[in-house]
Amino acid sequence: MTNPKYKGSRAFTHKWRGMVLSQDGTDPEDTGYALDDLRAIASESVRLPADFTCHPRLKRFHIDNRVKGLERDTIDWATAEAMALGSLNLQGFNTRVVGEDSERGTFSQRHAVFHDQNEYGRTYTPLRENIVGGPGAGRFQVLNTNLNEVGTTGYEYGYSLESPKNLCMWEAQFGDFFNPAQLMMD
């Protein structure tokens, strides 16, 4: 029999009560999202305030290309990521992306945080400012960290355990030891 005064690992489990795991044999959940809502999330993910000065190349190659792609019904990796994160936030889930260069993306694909070219230190995060913030919405965080795998992943692991509504992603540069082409050959 367990001691009812025990506060050990059960201290945070009340938040996980009712969590249904797929291995419990339940039917899969409907995870679809309306296409028009996904398009709205994608376009909002690159909408900046009128008084915000974006770098001209970033505007041309990232913002304008995303808008044109949506008009042609084509999306790239960064657009799909913005749609996924934005849709999770709108459903009340908190999302965190951390890593050495997460604000713009390791390979310059994300650009979740824009830096004003005329006002030093002014930034704008469209997924947080344009999409998240209504009642019941989750929190969007994107944080640059130093490349410290153990410290960052340890902290994020602990943060993810705090609530089933937290999705923590650690972005790292895999170039030295991970070759995606190798997966294709196996």
Fold and architecture overview:
There is one protein chain. 35% of the residues lie in helices and 11% in strands. It is α/β, with parallel strands linked by helices and 186 residues long. It has one domain (34-173): Rossmann fold (3-Layer(aba) Sandwich). The strands form 2 sheets. Strands 4-1-5 form a 3-stranded parallel sheet, sandwiched between helices. A hairpin with a 7-residue loop joins β2 and β3. α1 crosses α3 (77-90). The N and C termini lie far apart (50 Å).
Classified by CATH, the class is: Alpha Beta
Uncertain stretches? 174-186
Q: Could you tell me how far the N terminus lies from the C terminus, measured between alpha carbons in angstroms?
A: 50 Å
Domains (count) = 1
Average pLDDT metric:
81
Task: Characterize the largest beta sheet: strand count, sense, and whether it forms a barrel.
Answer: 3 strands, parallel
Work out the helix count. Answer: 6
Order of helices and strands: HHHEEEHEHEH
CATH architecture call: 3-Layer(aba) Sandwich
Query: Could you state the oligomeric state of the chains shown?
Result: single chain
